[in-house]
Design a protein that fits this description.
Blueprint: E1 3-8, H1 14-24, E2 31-38, E3 41-48, H2 51-60, E4 67-73, E5 88-90, E6 94-99, H3 105-114, H4 125-136, H5 142-150, E7 157-163, E8 170-175, E9 180-183, E10 188-191, E11 203-206, E12 212-215, E13 220-223, E14 229-230, E15 235-236, H6 241-244, H7 252-258, H8 260-273, H9 286-291, E16 295-300, H10 302-319, E17 323-327, H11 328-331, E18 342-348, H12 354-365, E19 370-375, H13 381-384, E20 388-391, H14 404-423, H15 429-450, H16 453-463, E21 468-473, H17 478-492, E22 495-500, E23 517-521, H18 528-539, E24 544-550, E25 561-566, H19 574-593
Bound molecules: fructose -6-phosphate.
Fructose -6-phosphate (F6R) binds at residues 301-304, 348-350, 353, 356, 401-402, 486, 490, 606-607.
């Protein structure tokens, strides 16, 4: 969703801001803008649409300065218009960018109107700009005005502010939304995401909840929620520039699909380095936290939720623990019955998803403090709020549709299931060795599945003109059917539904006709015969079948039944391998339909609002 970048330097910061905003584009946005302080004035350029359009306008205006802020906006309060785009300016003096939502903006707006402020936008953000301006009028510094303002705000914010009366300072504040400071040589930066500044510096400070900070060219001062100056640790970011570049690929989604053997191998390597299924993999307190777990509660959204649904089969079968999986936005509003012996597992690529974060807070408020986060972004909000962490090593995921994050989440969750099983005495040494072996061979099997791309691309041509599709699977492959349907709908805009194959005759069979392609994930497992019967039910109604099955299953193509053979059955990890062809099917169908694959309409990469 929204992105922030800011810089103070002895060189022109406009190219830095534009480059940063381009790197934030993947998060999803509908307008962009920058503001700079130059020659005692605040100058601003905003545009709806792409950053490139805003960049062209900034070039045309000859914008250049040593101090500036930039923003990509994903509309929440107020439509997609130039006047709602950030930065917002108060009285021609100060400019501000904001991520998050100010809940008490209406009350503050009334107050500011009474003080004589006029509003140009429908945003909650403009309120903050005027509030800071109002405090400055009392004769305090920009930092003090920001510190006074944030105490009057309810809600979530990451803020960056510049003021023409103070051309050597950039101030910033954080509550509930990620924000970090980048430390350069004689220049400093602020950003909502390290990718925005990684070409300038890798040395970063992650601001804590309630922090404010003041940046000059020469230094950075950070203050906690009570305005006391504090030292925050300096981290060196591991985000690689290569993961942020497209390279020879046409889309980030395509690149990320093809990166999966490497991403899985890196995640598995982390497990092997720790000596296998050792509790220490999850953090230093893991022995104590995992010792007497009585059940598992998984919380996540979207694709990450589907990873959780797959994990339930593993956790029940391998660890012998009851496992519930909930969509975070539902869980947080249910009257859940807390259990202090329950392990609460949140799964998230970004680590920022607001609903998952709130669900975790709610779970903790019910007295459940055995918490584990499976996350792809270290130092993001979810791992920081959890006792234990397992970091998936997928690398930066830029395409809005999650691919390599999903398969690495599955690897992490499988590892959790085996570790819990081992701690409970249900997995002996020989089984551990078998499971490790299966993980070692996984990148190779995933590569085989990727080699099916030309065959899947041919199927995609048949899908492209269709309006609807059904995806079926059973057991651990049922969540893969759900994931296949989600991938197809979000990037190709074809309406698609995933169903457990056994549910077909309880409703969805009514939809099946010659126009409804039905994808079936039918590996050679214990449920294959049952899936075959379900396939007959579809064929008898004229439905065209597209079946992914193992090389060693007895399944064969016939009239109206197309078959692609995935690699030899890989046993318990088969859902990970079968995630690949459904990703490829969605990708090639979207290509054939000419959609914006990496930035599907209306969607954002990190969903930081409710
Ligand atoms: C779908 C997709 C989304 C995310 C969901 C949760 O391709 O990417 O459904 O999985 O928004 O996001 P994270 O995993 O960042 O919490």
């Amino acid at each position: 969703m929204c992105g922030i970048v800011g810089a103070i330097a002895q060189r022109d910061v406009v190219p830095l801001l534009v480059d940063g905003l381009k790197r934030l584009e993947y998060r999803g946005y509908d307008s962009a803008g920058i503001a700079v302080v130059v020659a005692d004035s605040v100058r601003r350029v905003r545009r709806t649409g792409r950053v490139a359009e805003m960049e062209a306008a900034a070039l045309a205006e000859g914008l250049g300065a040593n101090l500036g802020i930039g923003h990509t906006r994903w509309a929440t309060h107020g439509g997609v218009t130039e006047s709602n785009a950030h930065p917002h300016i108060s009285d021609g003096e100060l400019a501000l960018v904001h991520n998050g939502i100010i809940e008490n903006h209406e009350a503050q707006r009334e107050r500011l109107r009474a003080l004589g402020y006029a509003f140009e936008s429908q945003t909650d953000t403009e309120v903050v700009a005027h509030l800071i301006h109002h405090h400055r009028k009392q004769g305090v510094s920009l930092l003090a005005a920001l510190q006074a303002t944030v105490k009057e705000l309810h809600g979530a914010y990451a803020l960056a502010v510049i003021d023409k009366r103070d051309p050597a300072t950039l101030v910033t504040a954080r509550m509930g939304c990620p924000l970090l400071i980048g430390l350069g040589e004689g220049e400093n930066f602020v950003a909502s995401d390290v990718s925005a500044i990684v070409s300038a510096t890798r040395r970063v400070i992650f601001l804590e909840e309630g922090d404010t900070a003041e940046l000059t060219c020469d230094g950075v001062r950070v203050f906690d929620a009570s305005d006391a100056q504090v030292m925050r640790e300096v981290h060196v970011s591991e985000v690689s520039l290569a993961s942020l570049e497209l390279g020879p690929y046409r889309h980030f989604m395509q690149k990320e699909i093809h990166e999966q053997p490497r991403a899985i191998a890196d995640t598995v390597e982390g497990i092997l380095d720790a000596g296998g299924f050792d509790a220490a993999l999850f953090g230093k307190d893991a022995d104590a936290v995992l010792a007497d777990v009585a059940s598992v509660q998984i919380l996540a959204c979207g694709t990450s939720y589907y990873a959780g649904l797959t994990a339930r089969y593993w956790i029940e079968a391998i660890a012998g623990l009851p496992c519930a999986v909930d969509i975070a936005s539902e869980y947080r509003y249910r009257s859940v019955v807390g259990n202090p012996k329950q392990l609460v597992v949140t799964i998230s690529q970004s680590g920022e998803t607001l609903d998952t974060m709130e669900a975790l807070k709610y779970a903790k408020a019910q007295g459940q403090d055995k918490t584990l986060s499976i996350c792809n972004v270290p130092e993001s909000a979810l791992p920081r709020a959890s006792k234990l962490v397992l970091h998936t090593r997928a690398g930066a995921e830029i395409g809005v549709a999650s691919t390599k994050a999903f398969t690495t989440q599955l690897v992490a969750l499988f590892t959790l299931a085996v570790t819990l099983g081992k701690l409970r005495g249900r997995v002996d040494t020989a089984q551990q060795a078998d499971f490790l072996n299966a993980l070692r061979h996984l990148p190779g099997s995933v590569q085989h599945a990727l080699n099916l791309e030309p065959q899947v691309a041919l199927w995609a041509e048949k899908f492209a003109p269709r309006q609807h599709a059904l995806f079926l699977g059973r057991g651990t492959h049922y969540p893969i059917a759900l994931e296949g349907a989600l991938k197809l709908k979000e990037i190709s805009y074809i309406h698609a539904e995933g169903y457990p194959a056994g549910e077909l005759k309880h409703g969805p069979l009514a939809l099946v006709d010659t126009q409804m392609p039905v994808v079936v994930i039918a590996p050679n497992d214990a449920l294959l015969e049952k899936v075959k019967s379900n396939i007959q039910e579809v064929r008898a109604r004229g439905g065209e079948m597209f079946v992914f099955t193992d090389a060693d299953s007895s399944f064969s193509a016939s009239e109206g039944v197309h078959v692609i053979r995935t690699p030899r059955h890989v046993g318990i990890l088969s859902p990970i391998v079968h995630a690949i062809p459904v990703q490829l099917l969605a990708y090639h169908t979207a290509l054939a339909r000419g959609t914006d694959v990496d930035k599907p309409r209306n969607l954002a990469k990190s969903v930081t609002v409710e």
